[in-house]
Amino acid sequence: MNEAIRTTCAYCGVGCGIRATVTGPREVRIEGDPDHPANRGRLCSKGTHLGETVGLEGRLLHPMIGMKRASWDRALNLVAKRFRDAIAQHGPNSVAFYVSGQLLTEDYYVANKLMKGFIGSANIDTNSRLCMSSAVAAHIRAFGEDVVPASYDDLDAADLFVLVGSNTAWCHPIVYQRIRARCEAGAKLIVIDPRRTETAEEADLHLPIRPGSDVALMNGLLHYCREAGALDQGYLAAHVAVPEDFWSKLGEGSDLWSVARVCDVPPSDLRRFYELFAANPRTITLFSQGVNQSISGTDQGNAIINLHLATGRIGKPGAAPFSITGQPNAMGGREVGGLASTLAAHMDFAPENRARIQRFWASPSIAEKPGLKAVDLFRAIDEGRIKALWVMATNPAVSMPDAGRVREALAACPFVVVSDVMERTDTGEFAHVRLPAAAWGEKDGTVTNSDRTISRQRALFPLPGEAKPDWWIVKEVARRMGWKTPFAYDRAAEIWREHCRLAAYQNDGARVFTLPNGGAGGNAAYDAMEPQRWGGTPFADGRYSTPDRRARLVSVTQRPLQDPLSNWPMTLNTGRYRDQWHTMTRTGLSPKLARHREEPLVEVHPDDAAAFGVEDGGFARVATPQGESIFRAAVTDAQRLGELFTPIHWTDRTSTGGRTGLLPRPLTDPISGQPGFKSTPARIEPVSAEWRGFLIVTGDLPAPPKCLWATRVAIPAGALWEIAGNGDALRLDKLLPAGERVEAVDPARGTRRVAILRDGRLAAALFVTRTGELPPRDWLIAQLSAPQVAPTLLAGRAPGAQSDRGAVICVCFDVGINTIVTAIRDQQLTDVPAIGAALQAGTNCGSCRPALARILAETRQEAVNA
Predict the structure, then answer these.
(1) Distance from the Cα of residue 400 to its chain's centroid
(2) Tens of pLDDT along 213-250?
(3) What is the C-alpha separation between 172 and 177, in angstroms, rounded?
(4) Please, are residues 59 and 463 in contact by the beta-carbon 8 Å criterion?
(5) Phi-psi region for residue 727, left (φ > 0), alpha (ψ -120 to 50) or beta?
(6) Of 159, 267, 613, 775, which residue is 20 to 30 A from 598 by alpha carbon distance?
């Protein structure tokens, strides 16, 4: 039997350890690593089902020039030539790389070295710009260096958790379970979020503040702490530089009533928050995209850090501001200088740093100044200033704000290279050259998680087809551009050791960033590397990475919040779903992960839905000045009045609607360059459909059906397409494969049900209706794998009585809401652990536990009312 391979999860910045046992050519059993400090053996639903995503479905397996397969030599030579030509004709700033937190540190290092140290431009930016660059900027302003001054161990020592703009139960479930465990021991939880999320459901206090009012909230809290005598005057005097007018500026508009009015929350709730914070010195404030993805994101981050510095809640167990990152190696990218605004090893563009790195690399040139940040980079492409672009492991045609404009820029760029795992992506459609990169299960290298723990990622499978590691692809282009010796790497371990040496090179302790053991040891040591955290307990001695070794309080003021406009009366917020990841190129392959939220929903408050004529379960068009897209409507009082929420995941490959990237405005924080995804002026209107239905097929369709609404859902052995439209639905028959046709028609309801059989087995099923009901999908989906077709196929249900489990709540164990409600009623279950004991629901990653608690409360209330 194969031994388990210790590796690291492919998803969020928690950086969970995995034990992966290969069970077949492209099959693997996934378990949490009990010895990894980040997760201690637990995994969320996404990590648990990684085994469903390692197949070769849709993979790019050979270099492509245009639509033709090419050899590696021909493709790499073309890339090198086009980049050399652009540099020769237009200078080094005419080329750019756009990279990703999906890269390993070794990949990131080589790409950054090539662009900044040899091409001589800093035009390399990363999709991490979209998620945590405001936290980076805030850290640098306050500490003098981008250092997260916390670890997951601090969660086990805190008495108060303040989650700001973070739906932690969904986006970082393993972190959330550690928080909940501490809360069960007596700690308090405060959630600050405009939406009543699953995380907010279990909070001791939820503050649904107005989007963009975070600075007012935190300044008000700091003002309260000063008035209440809760500042640490000794710490301030010894370790913090305070601007002369800091306190006088802070006091303006920071009284309780003014802050409550700006934030649009009850003064009584605000006072309770202030009192809880002042009373609990061991406080962890975790902040994520709700803080960072704002045109005031850096100021919002500094407002949080100001609180911790002024109250001495930093560098101590259970007390810190804690930025939790979104991607598996966003932190590693920060370490090697993957952002356009930094050089390598936490150094900036000061002359001495530029000279130091140039000496170390023995490079012919070094970037003189920061490069173009993501939004500005694509604007420069659109304006014709960038002549050659290389996109690695990301999908900006979907994920960037104002994605329609980004697509126009990509279409106009003279030369676009895309290194990717998938053959077809929205961005890849614009590529002149596509290069097949290694996927998660084939990569070998390191990643760094949110609390600075470095973990090994190890290959589970051999490289398929002609796929290559990203670092290999970049170094081969560098060598063809003329820099053979500096890029003479044969394995990832060599790059890691060079990265370690650079981190230590002439670092006299001015920077916290150093790497454990300095990369000592050979290839065997690298292969056997255990998880290790750099930086120890940062700032425990009160010494910071500034010239005078003191931290900085940064004066920040609340910027005016715009009132709704008559033609754009709503505010759009965007974010993630629990079981999906980025643009679904990986999670979209998993049938289990598809069950939680099968379609992209626009969530809208009941009063807004009534005002604009939007019905729950119907369709709605969300429009902004940048674009528009159609969504399925979900009417919920978890939304603030006047606000909408849409998910970021769906693409042209997976849906005709749900294209959230088309909607946000391309406005950015002036310091970090991070886009403000959380507060775009918008409007909503109902969209009618004459018919609705679904199509189940073995395999898949080459493209979404051409109708008003078509959304793909991964299922075992094929795909489910939820569809709706206007006009003649008979044209859908063109989507059906060849085979024996069985059909039933109900003219009264405008219903047609068609099945296609091959050798007595189901190949496809199309159910469409104008006024009738559609059956649940589960039984029909199971018929794709059935050895023979049931006689009740066109009824959409098994012979005899059949229970409907309802919407899946627990993805880990595939438990539906109706199953849960029945168990609560029949077995008299009284709490969430009892549901877990009966059904297993909530006993793995725990991200469904808030939903289970809500279902339990609603079911018991229904019993009381009855």
Answers:
(1) 13
(2) 999 999 999 999 999 999 999 999 999 999 999 999 99
(3) 9
(4) no
(5) left
(6) 613
Cα–Cα distance for residue pair 708/173, rounded to 1 Å: 35
326 secondary structure, DSSP code: S
Amino acid of residue 228: A
* Measured distance CA(242)–CA(131) in Å, rounded: 29
| Closest CA relative to residue 559, chosen from 640, 661, 671, 642 | 671
Measuring CA to CA, which residue among 281, 299, 280, 283 is closest to residue 291?
Answer: 299
pLDDT 10s digits, 154-170:
999 999 999 999 999 99
pLDDT band of 414, cuts 50, 70, 90? very high
Q: What is the pLDDT of residue 803?
A: 67
The phi and psi torsions of 29 (rounded to 5 degrees) equal: -100, 130
> Which two three-digit tokens encode residue 343?
């050089």
Do 107 and 115 contact (CB within 8 A), yes or no?
no
* Structure tokens, 319: 């007390």
Q: Answer yes or no: is pLDDT of 801 > 60.
A: no
Tokens 């490289």 found at: 463
Give ∠ CA 192-615-206 in degrees, rounded to 5.
Answer: 10
pLDDT-derived band of residue 391, with 50, 70 and 90 as boundaries? very high
N-term to C-term CA, the chain: 56
At what angle are helices 403-412 and 374-382 packed, to 10 degrees?
50
Residue 251: per-residue pLDDT: 86
CA 290 to CA 202: how far, in whole Å? 19
Lowest mean per-residue pLDDT among 231-245, 352-366, 584-598: 584-598
What strands, in cross-sheet order, belong to the sheet with 445-448? 445-448, 453-457, 532-533
CB 671 within 8 A of CB 654: no
Contact 406, 400 (CB under 8 A): yes
For 116-120, 637-641, 657-661, 782-786, which range has the lowest pLDDT when averaged over its residues?
782-786
* Residues 97, 392 contacting (CB under 8 angstroms): yes
**CA 745 from centre of chain:** 44
CA dist list (Å): 685 to 198, 261, 617, 631, 657 = 27, 30, 14, 11, 14
And the tokens for 843?
A: 């006993």
Minimal CA–CA distance to 144: which of 539, 557, 675, 673? Answer: 539
d(Cα 262, Cα 571) in Å, to the nearest integer?
Answer: 16
β-strand partners of 29:
21
Count Cβ atoms below 10 Å from residue 427 Cβ, excluding itself: 26
What integer is the mean pLDDT of 355-369?
97
* Tens-digit pLDDT profile for residues 36-69: 999 999 999 999 999 999 999 999 999 999 999 9
Give CA–CA dist 60/583, Å, rounded: 16
State the Cα–Cα distance between residues 847 and 578, nearest whole angstrom.
8
Distance of CA 682 to the CA centre of its chain: 23
Sorted by sequence, the CB contacts under 8 Å of residue 822 that are 6+ apart come out as none
Helix H or strand E encompassing 13: none
pLDDT of 860 reads: 83
- Summary count for the chain: helices (H), strands (E): 27, 34
Cα separations in angstroms, 163 against 121, 288, 289, 304, 483: 38, 8, 11, 11, 47
Q: What are the tokens at 294?
A: 């704002």
Minimal CA–CA distance to 398: which of 677, 606, 660?
660
CA distance 776 to 779: 7
Residue 604 DSSP one-character state: E
Distance CA 714, CA 698 (A): 11
Token pair recorded at residue 70: 């090419």
Q: In whole angstroms, what is the distance from residue 388 CA to residue 377 CA?
A: 12
Span 698-727, average pLDDT: 94
Q: Give me the residues paired with residue 456 across strands.
A: 446
Q: How many CB atoms lie within 10 A of CB 862?
A: 12
Closest CA to 722 of 598, 605, 574, 631: 598
